[in-house]
Amino acid sequence: MSSATNDYSKTRAFLIDTTKCTGCRGCQVACKQWNQLKAEETSFFSGEGYQNPPSMSEHTFTRVKFKDYQKNGQNEFAFYKEMCMHCNEPACASVCPVGAFRKTAEGPVVYDAKRCIGCRFCMVACPFGVPKYEWSKAFPLVKKCTGCFSRLKAGLEPACATACPTAITYGSRAEMLKEAEKRIAARPDRYVKVVYGKEEAGGTSVLYLTHQPLDELGFKQVTKRSLPSYTWQALRLVPGIFLTVGGSLSLLSWFTHRKDRLKKEEEQRQASSHKAKEENQ
Fold first, then answer.
1. pLDDT averaged over the chain?
2. Is residue 69 predicted with pLDDT exceeding 50?
3. How many angstroms separate the CA atoms of 23 and 66, rounded?
4. Measured between alpha carbons, how far is residue 193 from residues 68, 176, 206, 209, 267 in Å?
5. Are 130 and 84 in contact (CB under 8 A)?
6. Which residue in 195, 203, 193, 209 sits closest to 224, CA to CA?
7. Backbone torsions φ then ψ of 227, nearest 5 degrees
8. Tens digits of per-residue pLDDT, 31-60?
9. CATH number attached to the domain at 12-234
10. Where are the domains of the chain?
11. What's the pLDDT at 263?
């Protein structure tokens, strides 16, 4: 479906004002805590900038990127939070052959690990390079920001938005777009007159305001058309042998995951049964 046939104005969205970001990384800490993500061994200087960890991974769903530049002869820092963009029409969902990804009515793009077969087409299709693979595990899954979907269902805001003292505003996408345009109109000297995410990849649930040109800050330039119409066309160009081998490995991975899940369920069932017998004695 094209974005023209869907109304995403009522979905929830993040408005991230990079001019107000202090680089405190409170959002990173909140994300780690809520999602119970492991710490990573990292180096302070990654080669790309001063951000740490150097990139998103299976253990890091969001990070604050640092960009140093010169303004009027003075050294300055710019910061912005990198995360899943939760596209209106996500490419990851369009290429997933088993429907492991889906766009929710609330806004977040969520992932069902029980459906995943490990084909990693989502990693190829995402224009923002968001989905990450659990390379550290024998039976890996795909990991990414969930938009704190479970918190939204409980009537709460995402952990990062709750923790941020200055830069993140959260609400309906229509309200966030209106607020972004309002800020640009009120302070044209402060902002680049672009709301990143308004049209990129057909529109996203993460919107950015910046005071530096987007390319200078490292924002990825992507098409403004929704991506599902492109994704399968692109994947058809992948060599058939890759798809055949990849499909076989994916199927093997799915059966392994299923066997492991059934084993755990049986163990839990037996434990519950044993506990019930003890209580009845």
1. 84
2. yes
3. 8
4. 21, 15, 17, 8, 58
5. yes
6. 203
7. -90, -20
8. 999 999 998 887 766 556 677 888 899 999
9. 3.30.70.20
10. 12-234, 237-280
11. 61
